[in-house]
Amino acid sequence: MQWWFVLLMVLAALGCGPSLPPSKPLDQLTPLEAQGRQVFVGRCARCHRVDSTSGLNGPGLFGLYRKKYLRNGAPANDDRVTDIIEHGRGMMPAMGNTMDEEQLQALLAYLHTL
Ligand code: HEC
Asked: How confident is the model over 18-71, as pLDDT tens digits?
């Protein structure tokens, strides 16, 4: 193998690998975060992956709050994310009336662990 090829592979591995450290491990979730995960599994998981940013029916949510911006350019914060959950966006249905405030807060706490 040529030395430059090896160098290219190393650079590719560094540059294109997952740029964020892994999500918080499931066995370290607080009770609130674990409750939020239940909400997520029940209502969001059919459309969103949590372990990658690649799409399912919606974009993968890995690292959601660890990136500065959402896909539409809005800042990645609770206000914007709550708005998307409550009112939907594009092909995502509005879910504001499918969960109470407690479930929403738990869900947001869980999303912060991704
Ligand atoms: C029926 C499929 C579907 C379900 C269920 C769903 N979503 Fe989505 N979601 C989408 C789609 C599609 C988009 C992209 C919307 C767009 O920008 O056009 C999206 C976008 C998002 C975004 C913005 C991501 C970004 O980077 O901009 C967040 C956050 C999100 N969804 C969270 C949730 C949460 C939390 C739930 C569960 C309460 C949920 N979604 C349920 C389909 C879904």
From this structure: 578 999 999 999 999 999 999 999 999 999 999 999 999 999 999 999 999 999
Query: What digits encode the pLDDT tens for the residues 88-101?
Result: 999 999 999 999 99
The enclosing domain of 70 has a CATH number of 1.10.760.10
Residue 65: how many CB atoms within 10 A of its CB?
16
- 94 C-alpha to ligand 1 centroid (Å): 9
Domain residues for the domain of 86 are 31-111
Read off the tokens for 2.
């040529």
Our mutation pick for probing the ligand 1 site, out of 20, 37, 43, 48, counting the most ligand atoms within 8 A of Cβ, is 48
Ligand 1 center–CA 17 separation, angstroms: 24
